[in-house]
Every structure is written in structure tokens, then in C-alpha cells.
Design a protein that fits this description.
By secondary structure, the protein is of the alpha/beta class. The chain has four domains: 31-103, Signal recognition particle alu RNA binding heterodimer, srp9/1 (2-Layer Sandwich); 151-329, Rossmann fold; 335-404, Orthogonal Bundle (Helicase, Ruva Protein, domain 3), CATH 1.10.8.60; 416-601, Up-down Bundle (Methane Monooxygenase Hydroxylase, Chain G, domain 1), CATH 1.20.58.760. The protein is 50% helix and 11% strand. A six-stranded mixed β-sheet has the order 6-8-9-10-7-11, with helices on both faces. α16 (416-435) packs across α18 (482-491). The two termini are 74 Å apart. Mean pLDDT is 81; it is low at 1-6 and 531-541. Bound molecules: adenosine-5'-diphosphate (ADP), magnesium ion (MG) and zinc ion. Magnesium ion binds at residues 209-210, 262, 307. Residues 209-210, 262, 307 line the site of magnesium ion.
Amino acid sequence: MQPQKPKNTFLTLVIIALVIAASSMIFSSGQSNSEQVSLNVLAEESKSGVIKSISVSGNRINLELIDGKKQYTYKEDSANIYDLLEKAGVDKQVVASLPISIENTESNAFWQELLVGMIPFLLIVGFFAFMMRSAQSSNNQAMSFGKSKAKLYNSEKQKTTFDDVAGAHEAKEELVEIVDFLKKPEKYVKIGAKIPKGVILVGSPGTGKTLLARAIAGEAEVPFFSISGSEFVEMFVGVGASRVRDLFTKAKRNSPCIIFIDEIDAVGRHRGAGMGGGHDEREQTLNQILTEMDGFETGTTVIVIAATNRPDILDPALLRPGRFDRRVTVGMPDLKSREEILQVHSRNKPLEESVDLAKIAKGTIGFSGADLSNLMNEAAILAAKNNKKKVSMHDIEQSIEKVILGPEKKSKVMSEKEKKLTAYHEVGHALIGHLLPGCDPIHKVSIISRGSAGGVTWSRPDEEKNYVTKSSFEDDLAMALGGYVAEEVFFGETSTGPYSDLQQVAKRAKAMITKFGMSDLGPIAFGSGNDEVFLGKDFGHVRDYSEASAAEIDKRVRETINNAYKRAKEIVLKNKKLMIKISEDLIKQENMNGEEFAKYFKEVKIPKKDK
Ligand code: ADP
Ligand code: MG
Ligand code: ZN
């Protein structure tokens, strides 16, 4: 549709020009500041000699008087101005001496008439042309509706390669194999190996699935069609399926090639799981994908790669042999991978000598690749903001805080009373977190609000944790209740502050019992351990356990939380004096880092857990 654009603007220009020309012609004949007079007046003025000039243009006579006034009058077309004036009684000699000029209007008038006459005609033609064009373009749109919007990548520019993907070694290894497959299929076919049809990349958001797919495109040197699952889903029934058909037809024509379906969970959910409108469409789309994947003729090398962060909700039919039977897990980066990812993302950022990426990798447990990339970007922004040429360690550390906790809201006004409440609340968390061995070390306590929270207590693990034990769950619960207990002990009543703390506590306590078997109910996962109601699928039977079990579970949840509460209260009551000291300092300081906080505890013994 691009090439039609100039034509369209040309047409518009022509129309505008015509309108301007027409209006100027119409208005030019009526000079606004001149006054119409009768022929008699003209004659009188001629006699008294006040006329500076007379110009005749067609049947119009324009007069300019010596005092600058302008007048005009009309005569019959055929009449001669000299005769007219004589007939009106002006002396012949006077007439001869008048400064009369006569303009040739013949050709002018012809063109004027022609143009004016053509305007309506041109307008109509223009209008029709315009209508036809828009009709045509909407027609085009309708025609391309069922076409896939897949983007074809094979440009040399800004190519992503496996070098851009740090860490994720296992995933890369598997995918290298697939790239090899596309490059030298004979090698595999000769030995009787079947080429995989579908590969599914599974991993949490931000772990680099899309990045990996782009790297495959860059490495494979074959056409790469990329589409996102959500692009299949449109308002109109049947569009998704026809887009799938179109995509696969294109791909087969370009074999060997790769089709990449990002976020396949948008279409690949359990069939029959949807509720209300829209699910039929998804089912059709999914069915079409399955049909197409089954229908690859031997000899065509089309590999379909899909990515998702919700493999649990995918339709089992998708994962059957012959479809997406290869599953490549892209995990959260470990220490070594984090360092490599940091390196990749500091390639184009000048770093100060003192920057130790290994140390930063250590302090960013739980960061995904996307988080790390975001971190380095924030650090660079911070350095630039302070007009520095290089990114320092301090910039990066500040940014870690920002990435995890959100930016500080220094402008939020807090009354003295609220400040005090926040300080005691946070110190309550921090105190318990510091004293219980199952909690992560305190990294920062602050009463400057972040996001929606009033203040923040930030504890960070020293080392990677893959498992959480029952005792550290219990310690965490006590710590989470520390704010609530502190408010109760020091202010005699609690506020809405602990709202999200309490939610967290309830959720975790329930998970301990229903998912992890951490109660005397035994090693039973209730509700199949699935706490998410996936629309429709388990609607109506959210619980797959009895009312009696539900009551038992509720009882255990309550007990667990109560125990945590008791422990928290005991610790706070025991350390009341210390808490007042820390809290009052925190009110003055607003921020306290882990070391500063730990200094208060020189003399306090860490109590042994009694469980
Ligand atoms: P996903 O698709 O898994 O949600 P993306 O591939 O979109 O994640 O990753 C988002 C961004 O995070 C990437 O563009 C990249 O900058 C960064 N990133 C993620 N993982 C890695 C990695 N392993 N190496 C380098 N950069 C990464
Ligand atoms: Mg993605
Ligand atoms: Zn709290």
C-alpha cells in the first residue's frame, strides 16, 4: 500500500489548489474596501476632476480618486466607456483627458469560466477516486486478515548469535544440535536419524527464551518465521486457524526453515478449558497447528520451535511424540551464568576498574537474564545522570536495590506518627529476621517508601537456595509477622500496614501444609498442589479434597500461623529496649544497611530454636 501514498497526496494537493484558485477568483472581483457607486456619480466625479485613474475590466469599472478612495461601478458588456460618459453629459474633451485604462479580459475570462465550470466536476472525480482508494485498501486489509503476520528474519544486520546468550549452556547445546540439523540434514538422514519436528523452550519469564530463538535464527542461516501466540488470536472466528495454515504454507515453500511460535500458551492451552467466548477460536487454532505439524511430508525440513513459561497449562496433545516432543528447559541463571550475562550486557558500557562482576553476580541471586540486563542498564543511566564517563561499582549496587525494591519515593509525605509506626514495624521484621537462623541476613532497613509499601526490610540470601526447609519456613513466617507484633507491642493496636504481610503469611502457611506435607497431616499434596484455578478446567471443583480435609487443613494453617506469631511476640518482648533504640535511630537516619543494623547485636545471643 506504500506506493499509493504519493498519488493520494497529489490528489489532495490538486483539490486544495483548485479550491484556493476558485475562491480567489470569486473574491478578487469584489475588492473589499471599495464602494459601489452609480454611473451618474462617475460622471459627476469626472466633471469635477477628482479622479486619479479609471480602469475598465470587462463590465466592471474601477475608480481611484485623488484622495485615495476607491469606487467601482458596472456597465453593460457591450457599452463603450467613452460613449457612456459623453451620454451622461461629460464634456468630450474632459472625457479624452481622463486617465482610462482598459484591461484585456477576454482570455482571462475564458479560463476563469472553464476552471470555475470544472470545479464541481473535478471535485466529484476526486471524491470518487478517494472512495475507491479507501474501499480498495480496506479490501486489502480484509484480504490479508487471514494471512499470518509472521516476520521473516534473515537479515545480516544486528544478527543475534549464540555468543549473545550467556549461560544457559544445556539449552544452547541442544539447540546447536538443531542448527546443525538444518545445515546438514543429510548427515542425520544417512544414519537413519529422524529430524525432530518440534522443540519447546520452557523457562521462567526473562530467562532468554526469545533471545535463544533469535540466536538460532542468526546461526542457522535458514529462513526464520517468528510469530507470537497472541497474534493468532483475533476477534474473528477462524482467523487464527487460517493464519496457521498460511504460516505453514509459507514455511513449507521455504524449507528448510524454522517457525518460531513465542508464548504458545496463548493458543496452546488445554482444550475445553476455556470459559465463555473465545475458547472455540483457540481450539481451532491449536487443532490447526497440530494438523499442520502432523502433515509435514517427508523431505521438508521445517522445525517448529515454541516458547512458553507455563508448560503446565499446555494441551497434552501438543507434547505428544511427533509434535513438540523435545523439551529444552531454560533455567534461571546460576552464579557463573549470571557473571557471564553481566559480561554480555557490559560489553558496550565502559566500567571502572574497581567493578567486580563476580561479586555482583553473587549479590543477585534470583535475578533472571532480563533482570541482569535491566540492572546494567539502570547502572549506566545512573552513571550518565551523574555525568560520569564510566559505570562504577556503586552505581551497580544502587541499581540492584532499585531493580528489586523499586525506586525510592522520597517525596511521599509521612507524618511523624506514621514515621514512628513504620520504623517500629520494619525493625520488628528486621530484629526477628536477624535473630532467627532460618531467615536470610538483613541487608537493609528503611522507612522510605517504595512502591506501595511504607518502608522496607530487605533480606538477601548469601547463597543459592534450591530448597526451603520446614524450619526456615517457620522462621520466615515469624519474621513476616514481626511488623504486626511490633505495632501491637509498642502502639497497643495494629494498623493496615501489615496487610500484605498477613496475606503472604497465610499463603505460605497454606502451601506448607497443602503442598509440601509439612504438618502432621502427612505427605499429602492437597488440591494436587495446584492453587491456581485455571479458568474453567477446575472450576466447580477447585478442591479435590473433602470438606473434612478442608477443616483439618484450616486448623493446621491456623496453628502454624499462631505458633509463628507466638515466637515473634516472644522475641519482640524480650528485646523491647533494643528495639526502641534501633527504631529511634532509624527514624533519624531513615536508612540503615546490614552492617549498621548488625552492630546493635554485639551482646545479644542468638537463641536456639526450640523445635
Ligand atoms: P523470555 O523470552 O524468556 O521471557 P527474553 O529472551 O525476552 O526472555 O529475554 C529478555 C532480555 O533479557 C533479552 O533481550 C536479553 O537482553 C536478556 N537476557 C535474558 N537471558 C539472557 C542470557 N542468557 N544472556 C544474555 N542476555 C539475556
Ligand atoms: Mg519471550
Ligand atoms: Zn511489614
